[in-house]
What does this fold into?
Amino acid sequence: MVEIYNNYEIKNESTFRIGGIVKKVAFPETVEELIELLKSDEYDIVLGNCSNVLFSSDYIDKSIIITKNINNFSFQGTKLHIECGVKGPIISKECQKRCLSGFEFLIGFPGSFGGMICMNASAHNQYISDTFVSARVFDLNKKEIKTINKNEMEFSYRKSKISNSKYIVLDAEFALKEGTNEQIEEIMKRNIDFRKQHQPSLSYGNAGSIFKNPENDSAGRLLDLCKMKGEKSGGAIVFENHANFILNYNNATSEDVITLMYKMYSTVKEKYTIELQPEIKYIGDKGTKEYKLWETMTENILMTQK
Ligand SMILES: Cc1cc2nc3c(=O)[nH]c(=O)nc-3n(C[C@H](O)[C@H](O)[C@H](O)COP(=O)(O)OP(=O)(O)OC[C@H]3O[C@@H](n4cnc5c(N)ncnc54)[C@H](O)[C@@H]3O)c2cc1C
It folds into this structure.
């Protein structure tokens, strides 16, 4: 059954644990329920596990669908059919049990398949696009369902045909490779160990990498050279072990995070004439100070799907 809430406090839905009250939020449990909500034309944005978003701490005058309760998947040999709300780490472990390789990288972060396809999530030289075969999507313009194959997906770094488009991923097919349990376990362990050393756990709210890597460089490297580690704004701080992560260490607001991001952005711009682009998506309303700051950092202003 779809749960729908008016004036919903969104903070605890996001891995950043930041956010104010949202006008309306719906949590469908099946793909059919999601399709009905999309047909109703009442919703502005579809999210998965909210692990790559910064919600405004102010009132958000939007209607949002969160797919995290849409949770079915099935394997047939090396083929995987998966619904948009399923989270990566669950499938990483399911693949390991079946000696299937390709999703070892998903063990380390909390994205849903809808979000990961949209962003072409990647880590440790594995990409969602490597094993992707096709997705069924809802076209918000035509109000119809269609299938998009890999060759039409325009996958690139943190981008796909789904990003900033009118398509909502309903479910998808993947083709994995056969491997051995030991090999797969070893890669997963290496990935986890790397994250423990270099990245924050979710005990402090965060949304993964804040800025995208510029071409042939790393945002973390540039921010480190600019001595950003440990920089603070209100309750937000740049992580001591990796300068491209911001932690919500003490009830940070969205304004704290964006003010800190702006400092990171302008320091790198001044020193290296490189304009870092946010990887995270901001969800808020026009007219606020933080909205204006965000606008100066990115052409891709706000994430809206309508
Ligand atoms: C600790 C931590 C580590 C991370 N490490 C990595 C990493 O190594 N590599 C990496 O790539 N990312 C990483 N991330 C970021 C994040 O997990 C990924 O970007 C992930 O793909 C986002 O998935 P989500 O379901 O949370 O998407 P959301 O944050 O909910 O949404 C992200 C985008 O996807 C869109 N979207 C979501 N569902 C759908 C759908 N069904 N149809 C169409 N569009 C949809 C949204 O509209 C939005 O534009 C990390 C995050 C955290 C918190």
Remarks:
- The mean pLDDT is 95.
- The longest strand covers residues 167-175.
